[in-house]
Amino acid sequence: MNRSAAGVCDNFVSVIIPTYNRANSILRAVQSVLQQTYRSFEIIVVDDGSTDGTSEVLRPFADRIRLVCQANRGPSAARNAGISLARGSIVSFLDSDDVWLAEKLERQVQLLALAGHGVPCCICNSIMTDAACHSSTSFDVATIKGTIDLGLWHNPAYVIATRFLLFNQVVAVRREALDTAGGFREDLRLLEDYDLSLRLALLGPWGFIREPLVVKHDDRADSLSGQAEKDPLTVLYAKEKVLDGLLSGNLIVDRKLKNTLERALRVVRSAILGYRIAARPSMVISSFGRLWLLALRLRIVAWRKSPWWPQAELSSLRIRGREDGI
User: Fold this and answer.
1) Distance CA 256, CA 158 (A)
2) 124 and 254 within one domain
3) CA dist., res. 69 & res. 191, Å (int)
4) Which of 85, 152, 185, 305 has the fewest CB atoms below 10 angstroms from its CB?
């Protein structure tokens, strides 16, 4: 393992697991990292002010993880605290109620090595399960279609601007790209991963692996996604903040991409207006708000069926050994 002048270890992965009151699931997450076929990694667990004994549960792993405890400051601050301690040239994140399959790190490190430094990160697919045992994959949810199993994704920003893509659990990102993008925004308690993924998407094409190498569990009523379903306006306000911040920062030089982001922002603001009208006490006014939202949904459906709806532009890469059966 080589260490660069900046103190970052080459060919080494820093795995960061933020946690808050996950005593019942954190061990499953940590064990899934310890079972990786790729062995050159460190695990940094950041306990963001848990009150349920999460840190005590981790004591048996004291010699195999680095545990950092801090006052509750939110998921972005917890991940940034882990990043500040990371020694690897590649950083991966895992939520404390999810798990990785055994080859996740190995496959992503191989792809990043093959793709070169112009590729800031690599994502893999994920199995997504809920409390009712329904499952799908993150690529299906984001409609990342095609027959290419592994390669480069050339237009991630266009796709991410227009739909949800699971990010934190499935990404392996170069530390230098993470530093350039600026890490997680700590003023965001929701969609902080959406914000970072958009900024990383401006740095170059991504690597992708179609095979699911992560299992995402959404089995708690108080999870962030559960809260989002109960309060859609909270999600919309967060998305407005992300898109507005990106467009206001003069980071977008591609006019076509800027148009896509501006259109996505208009849709968000229209949805916010609709929900606010629908929440009014007057039955007549609230009915108008519901009709507004219905019309907006129909417009979005039409956009998705139009030639202007962004589709993932993919090309294949070949990792020697796996395809050759070596």
Assistant:
1) 9
2) no
3) 23
4) 305
Q: Write the single-letter amino acid at 26.
A: I
Q: Coil, strand or helix: which one is 304?
A: helix
CA atoms within 13 A on the CB side of 61: 22
Residues 260 and 111 in one domain: no
Q: Could you list the pLDDT tens digit for every one of the 326 residues in the chain?
A: 445 545 566 789 999 999 999 999 999 999 999 999 999 999 999 999 999 999 999 988 989 999 999 999 999 999 999 999 999 999 999 999 999 999 999 999 999 999 999 999 999 999 998 765 667 899 999 999 988 999 999 999 999 999 989 999 999 999 999 999 999 999 998 899 999 999 999 999 999 999 999 999 875 555 555 666 688 999 999 999 999 999 998 778 889 999 999 999 999 999 999 999 999 999 999 999 999 999 999 999 999 999 989 999 999 987 665 544 33
Residues paired with residue 324 on neighbouring β-strands, in sequence order: none
Contacts of 76 (CB under 8 A, 6+ apart): 184, 185, 186, 187, 188, 189, 192
> How does DSSP assign 118-149, residue by residue?
T--EEEEEEEEEETT--EEEHHHHTT--SS--
CB 136, CB 222: distance < 8 Å: no
Q: Do the domain assignments include residue 4?
A: no
Q: Which helix (H) or strand (E) holds 297?
A: helix 283-305
Show the domain range for 157.
Answer: 13-217
Q: What single string gives the DSSP state of each residue in 203-263?
A: SSPEEEEEEEEEEEEE--TTSHHHHHHH-HHHHHHHHHHHHHHHHHTT----HHHHHHHHH
E strand residue ranges, the chain:
9-19, 41-48, 66-70, 88-93, 99-100, 121-130, 135-137, 150-153, 171-174, 206-218, 314-316
- Asked if residue 4 lies in contact with residue 89, where contact means CB atoms within 8 angstroms, the answer is yes
Q: Is residue 18 part of a domain?
A: yes
